[in-house]
Amino acid sequence: MPSSAYKTTPLFGGALTCDLPTNFADVSKLRTVPDNQEVYIDKDGFTSIIIDITERVNAPGSGIEQDGRALTVHLEELVGEDADTVKVWNTTETQFTRLDESIPAYTLIATQTPKTMPGESRGQSAPDFTALILTLLRLEKENTDVLITVNVPHIKGEYDEDEVDLALGKQGELIGDAVEHVARIWATFEVKDWSLFSHI
Predict the structure, then answer these.
(1) Fewer C-beta neighbours within 10 Å, C or N terminus of the chain?
(2) What residue spans of the chain are helical by DSSP H?
(3) Which of 32, 34, 37, 108 lies closest to 76 in space, CA to CA?
(4) Residue 171 phi, psi (nearest 5)
(5) Which residues lie below 8 Å from residue 71, measured CB to CB, with a gap of 6+?
(6) What domain of life does the native source organism fall in (predicted)?
(7) Strand partners for 11
């Protein structure tokens, strides 16, 4: 399958830019999105990309240990009360090509499996599981954490179940595409106006 086409996309009024897939639509044109968030959704599927500007989490510890705890806090806030349905497969340090290499960033890949009550079956469109690729960019001077989340719902009949087994390192096509999207964001993410972080 050919690689996705991308286009440089202005975010938060052009204060940030990065490349996003051309087949993703700006959700704010369809419904209200919070001021600290940009949301794009695949017009041909179910995957979404969310860029969140949040207050920096001051976790205990220092350096990588502190950042790792902050990443966990953000993940728990993202999934809410369903933290016990989430499995983190790996966490890696991440480098944003167009930002100073001293700025720490981390990415994790996780899956969330919906809870079902005994005797209850999942609805037709409920996903078997949702893969999450979460990148945390820590802007200490700005007292800001930027979260980039790619949500990849896996709905029965919409993916090849034999191709996905994260325990064996098999990501399948949907997660593979999402990894490509997030890698493109790391390579192209740029801050055009640093004052953005004092306004949100």
Answers:
(1) N
(2) 63-79, 172-188, 196-199
(3) 108
(4) -90, -30
(5) 91, 106, 108, 134, 136
(6) Eukaryota
(7) 16
115 in helix, strand or coil?
A: coil
| Number of C-beta neighbours around residue 4 at 10 A | 16
In whole angstroms, how large is the CA radius of gyration of the chain? 17
Whether residue 120 is predicted with pLDDT greater than 80 in this model: the reply is no
- How does strand 105-112 pair with strand 24-26? unpaired
CATH 3.40.1000.10 fits 6-115+126-199, yes or no: yes
Q: Encoding tokens for residue 135? A: 């990148």
Mean pLDDT of 65-74: 94
Residues 35-67: tens digit of each pLDDT: 999 999 999 999 999 999 999 998 777 788 999
pLDDT at residue 159 in the model = 95
